[in-house]
Amino acid sequence: MTFAATVLTLYPEMFPGPLGVSLAGRAREQGKWTLDAVQIRDFAIDKHRTVDDTPAGGGAGMVLRVDVLSAAVDHALANNPAAPVIAMTPRGKPLTQERVRELAEGPGVTILCGRFEGFDERIFAGRPVEEVSIGDIVLSGGECAALMLLDACIRLLPGVMGAPSSGSEESFENGLLEYPHYTRPVEWEGRTIPEVLRSGDHAKIAAWRKHQAEVDTRLRRPDLWERHTGARVQSASGARRENKDQGQ
Ligand code: SAM
Fold first, then answer.
1. Pocket of ligand 1 (CB under 6 A)
2. pTM, whole model, 2 decimals?
3. Sequence-separated (6 or more) residues with CB below 8 Å from residue 10
4. With left for phi above 0 and alpha for psi between -120 and 50, is residue 92 left, alpha or beta?
5. Which of 28, 42, 140, 240 has the highest local Cβ count within 10 Å?
6. CA of 211 to the centre of ligand 1 (A)
7. Domains of the chain
8. What is the pLDDT of residues 70-118, one digit of tens each?
9. Residue of 11, 69, 88, 143 to mutate, ligand 1, most atoms within 8 A of C-beta
């Protein structure tokens, strides 16, 4: 199945941009994913091709018009009805690796890119549009966020990454940051690669990596660590409950 990406944007010339090179670029040439960058302005309804207007209630900036946005979304839904529609917005649900994996396993995605002050809120009530944020920062437009989301999906498509395990061992895949990596030279400015990684003992290496992943997650991302340990406590108590229910 080819992953079909549609991007609704005022700047289609920004695509494929960085997705035209390296893994994503090769994968596109091989037909593993397709890209349709659609100009939102083509759905304007007046002779000036207006896409925005002043905010109701006053204030700075301009707001993307709902009649124009809905026409653009309807066009994308008609072409790829099974693909979820995602609007990039700092007001959205923070993007996670779990959501990226779900998207990558599906038929594709339609991404709506905002500009100016963003979208007329009624688009979210009137169309099946999921609001997604790429972090607690404000970009000038949704295009860079869309590129990020697509990059994260494309690398997970079957056959895109060299070794399939390089995807499943990454940070966030099991709720933890990944363990640190080293490569030659063995010694650099007096710093050596940890002995265990040169031991050839695979069990010891796996144990060291697991420990490092846990320590680094706890120190760098207490939020992730809390969720991870909470999930483990929950699943252990869930298992205990299940055993009890089954009289074990
Ligand atoms: N007025 C909006 C607010 O304060 O929530 C910010 C609008 S921003 C200047 C313009 C566009 O950039 C947004 O409509 C959105 O498409 C995109 N954008 C900015 N920050 C983003 C983020 N953290 N995640 C996803 N998209 C973002």
1. 88-91, 113-115, 117-118, 133-135, 137-142, 145
2. 0.93
3. 39, 40, 41, 51, 113, 115, 141
4. beta
5. 28
6. 38
7. 3-154 (3.40.1280.10), 169-248 (1.10.1270.20)
8. 999 999 999 999 999 999 999 999 999 999 999 999 999 999 999 999 9
9. 88
